[in-house]
Specification:
There is one protein chain. This protein is an alpha+beta fold. The chain has a single domain, classed as Endonuclease/exonuclease/phosphatase (Deoxyribonuclease I, Chain A, 4-Layer Sandwich). It has 6 helices and 14 strands. A 6-stranded mixed β-sheet has the order 3-4-2-1-14-12, covered by helices on one side. A 6-stranded mixed β-sheet has the order 5-6-7-8-11-9, with helices on one face. Helix 4 runs parallel beside helix 5. The longest helix is centred in the middle third of the chain and has 22 residues. It is globular. The two termini are 25 Å apart. Bound molecules: calcium ion (2 copies).
Amino acid sequence: MRSWRSVVHGLVLGLVLGLTALEATEFLVESDRLTLGSTDLTRQSTATRTLRIMSWNVKAGSLFPATMPNPEGEEAGARVGRFGRVLRALRPDVLCLQEIWPLRENTAILELLNRELPLSKGQDWHVHRAVDVVIASRYPLKQKRGDRVIHFPLPEMPEFHYGQALCLVDLPEEDFDTDLFLITAHFRSRSGEANIRMRERHAESILERLEDLRSAGGDIDVPVRTPIVIAGDFNVYHGNVGDDLNHLRLLISGNTHDDSRGESSPPGPDWDGSELIDLSPSINGQGKAFYTWRNDTLPYPPGALDRILYTDSVLGVEAAFVLDAESLSSDLRKRFGILRSDGAFAGRQGEYDHLPMIVDFSFAEPTSENR
Ligand SMILES: [Ca+2]
Ligand SMILES: [Ca+2]
């Protein structure tokens, strides 16, 4: 139950934000969470229900104090405090987190989320972890699976695998016509033939999962036309010698060919046989800069390493952005309780590591016969 204080706060905030939204065109704020990069202001109405997904490679042990040995060279606790502020500003319904190193038990993630973004009526978050990736949701999770795809022993984690977590997000029938199937993955990084091949093998394993989802039998079945989203750190590097980004092409189109779908092409991963859409959100939804990783102290350009792919035959997008707290206006930072330094890893200027991607998916209003 929300306290009277939070209800009044929400009303006042809603009024202020409503007025602000009329004045500002570069952003739109809906209810009490920060929303940037709205794709179609006219559709921001009661005609649709939205589900907010946030995906973030949080970098090693950044979310937790240094209570466990951290991989060599990785800094523990760098996002303690920062993570909570960003979370409360964005208030995602579902989180996809990658690179939780050292691996943490579900209970540790659950306690963190319950503390930093408590749900109403004392409800618990729902957490599903596989390898170093996590799906967390305010709604129940079903058909949970985890894939250990590529064994990559690390000194501190000899059994570490790159892989994915996947599950059905059980959305409430009174608000949504359908559930949503979600996959989050962390791909091997770095250049070089062996690493490129690992990324391709990883993409192939996700394609096998998509094929199973769309066909009866096998390990998982979902109702036809259940929306599917794949979010995570795919380590997509543009301009690397020898890396044709086949792994990304595989995920989007189901094959490695660059051409559009011909007669001989196998069907794409979407329910209608078309390709998936690569969302490509921009920094603060401004449509100017498209990257999700940046470190000005290293000799690498910013890159869109992280992606959100989705079945656009059954899903729409209301808004999408990559949050950069540093370049956000001080007005918005103040209003949503985040600090300028929350955009940077460990708060050091120029060292961002990965930035969080946020998308508001729109669903059709439930029809009366489906209620
Ligand atoms: Ca199946
Ligand atoms: Ca499509």
